[in-house]
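Per reviewer request, we include the raw input and output of the structure prediction for the construct analysed in the revised manuscript.
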Amino acid sequence: MEIVDLTDAANQTVTVTFDQDTKLPLREVYRRRNAQFKDFDTDATMFTNYHGAGHGVQWPTNVRRERNGEKTFEMYSNTVDVNKNVADSLFTVPEKAKTPPKRK
């Protein structure tokens, strides 16, 4: 497995575990402060059973979320279609589009 920590500007970190061979994400973990109890809650999402979803995309058909080790969500998919009948032009930025100002 490959483990990657991603930290944002607010110093919040998400730890993502990738399969060493396929480079697909297997698990992501996020810790956040619990305002009521002043400790940490740990949210984890597990991705399994990847299948081809079209256009070379691999998609997990089983997704499970937990908070502090207790299941909060679970999803099973039979089929997944990616970019079905979506034109590439939908994602093209017009030349005259305004860009947001750069952050200082």
